[in-house]
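Cross-posting from the chemistry board since nobody answered there.

I work mostly on the small-molecule side, so proteins are not my area. We synthesized nicotinamide-adenine-dinucleotide and want a rough idea of how it might sit in this target. Sequence and SMILES are below. Is it possible to get a predicted 3D structure of the two together?
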Amino acid sequence: MAAQSRVILVGAGNMGLNHARVVSQSERASLAAVVDPREDVGREAAARFGTVWLPELPDLSGVDGVIVAAATEAHHPLAMQVLNSATPLLVEKPVADNILRTEEILSLADRLDLPFMCGLLERYNPAVLTARSILDHPFHVTATRHSPYAPRIKTGVAWDLLVHDVDLSILLLGSSPQVVNSALGHFHPRSGTAAEDVAETLLEFDSGAIAHVSASRVGHRKIRLLSIYELDKLIEVDLLRRDVTVYRHVSESADVEGRGYRQQTVIEIPELLTSEEPLTTQFERFLDIIDGRVDAAAERGTILPPHLVIDQVTATRRAD
Ligand SMILES: NC(=O)c1ccc[n+]([C@@H]2O[C@H](COP(=O)([O-])OP(=O)(O)OC[C@H]3O[C@@H](n4cnc5c(N)ncnc54)[C@H](O)[C@@H]3O)[C@@H](O)[C@H]2O)c1
């Protein structure tokens, strides 16, 4: 068996624990340490996944990769430290909490030509992978990502949630949007003044395609829905339930008595391409990039575009 990659996890919160589980279950990797400044949290996570706890990043010699799943505000210094020691990095989304810090991290990864991934996890959702495999010429995308309020998240909803569906829109429609229109709403008394709760965004693409992307963190139901329109079909994706439904409208006619109308729509439920947990698929890809089986530069090139759009979305706020 090939040697296992030694991976360190930074940040043992909600997302970090999932990463720790995935790394420790992988046959290709071992979890070398869990880093978190909160000793109780870090020690408990390390014990659960059979590794050691460290309060801060150690010297990274002998480490094959680092996953940063710390709070978004902490990404920038951690990412710069990891990359400056020439270690491959998977950083949770968003790369950083503003575009300048994001660009600084990405240009360092480019300069050093290092394996670098961002946790844009929905790319690996089995329902998204399946939908992408049956697409022909999509021209209209709508996405809704609404969640109940989570006070621990300090960034606004655009950097936190909208980024996923902007990323999917870019992947599905094949380019970055030329025009970004957005309206931001601030509603929750516990949200910081610079942290919006709702972001409604309209993206216009060079091809003429359009996407309407809606994110809210003041909902009362978790909704993750994506609709992809083509001339001959509509593909609906429920990212939470991980299912895909394809609708083809075939005819519309008056009823037998000539009143009202009757319509026919053929509904298909395609078999999912995979049932692999998205975090596992993402981590396997990170290992493939580290091993040189996936092109690191091409992967890095997909990360900035959704971040640039979110910067334009939040510019609406800065212009206020
Ligand atoms: N890809 C996804 O679908 C997805 C989903 C949820 C969260 N996230 C991202 O994951 C990251 C963490 O989110 P969360 O919900 O787990 O937050 P969380 O608050 O549950 O956990 C964050 C952890 O980071 C630790 N931390 C803070 N500063 C640190 C530092 N300097 N070094 C090491 N650890 C540090 C905290 O002590 C805490 O344990 C965020 O960037 C978030 O956007 C991604």
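Reply from a structural biologist on the board:
Welcome over. Reading the output above for you: The chain is about 30% helix and 25% strand. Residues 157-173 form the longest helix (17 residues). Happy to explain the token format if needed.
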